[in-house]
What we know:
Elements: E1 2-8, H1 14-20, H2 24-30, E2 33-37, E3 51-57, E4 60-62, H3 63-75, E5 76-82, H4 84-88, H5 100-110, E6 127-131, E7 141-143, H6 150-161, H7 173-176, H8 202-205, H9 221-224, H10 242-254, H11 263-270, H12 279-291
Parallel strand pairs: 1-2, 1-3, 3-5, 5-7
Antiparallel strand pairs: 4-6
Amino acid sequence: MKKIAIISLMSDGGCHIAFLDIHEELLQLLNQVDLVHSYMTVDRKDIPYNIDIALIEGGVRTTHDIELLKEARSKAKILVAMGSCACFGGIPGLSNLYDLTSSLNYVYRETPTTIKGVIPHENVPNVIRVAPISRYVKVDFQIPGCPPESKEIKDALVSLLKGEIPPQPTKTVCDECKLGPPKKKPKRLRRIYEPPEPNTCLLEQGYFCMGSVTRAGCGAKCPHAGIPCDGCRGPAPKALDQGASILNALITLAYENIKEFSLKRHSAYFYRYSFASSIIEDLIRKRLVEKK
């Protein structure tokens, strides 16, 4: 019987829940495989050897994450990044906009409720810049999303267990959306609390909708509910850099129309999930290495 493990790094557990949300079909899957490691369902602390498929949730934030990740890679035949943190660094990657010293000082010393705060430094792993797991080990397959679609997890596992390569989306969320693409330039930026016009592309209305540069596969659920795509599924297949691609699209669409746009103020919109794997992050890391 094939062995599957779910291994969690820096994570909120949402991807683990998405796996369990396969519901009744999970029982069918577990009749065919042995789930040998899962902190939510299996009472086992160590990672066993000879794992056929290891699903990794969470990105890298500490030196402990790196060691755990390398152990998983050495014990698994196939290693899958599950969720946007594992694939791209996720929302925690936005902390890379600040240096580590500033971040640690803020968290442990400068918050309003902290008195005589001390940064932990004994018997704890070192905190490092957030990174996707692919920066440290070879990744065989990605299942993006925050959280990923449960059906996509199941379909990927079924294909991998058969020795097949799961199909990857080739389109964008915008291609899946019945509201788009935009037909005219937006006249102003809209905030998320402003109610959208029905049956009209959200980007066209002036919302920061990332659908045109984000990988398909979710069925455009958020735009169909009147909520702009925030890019959780990462760069579209032809987008070299997710943030740079949407910035280019916005400049093309609305450079002359939108006066209140600020790159400094709005940058987190473009890289909400993928800053840790962006071209900018690569340049920052290169600079940090050169300084040493």
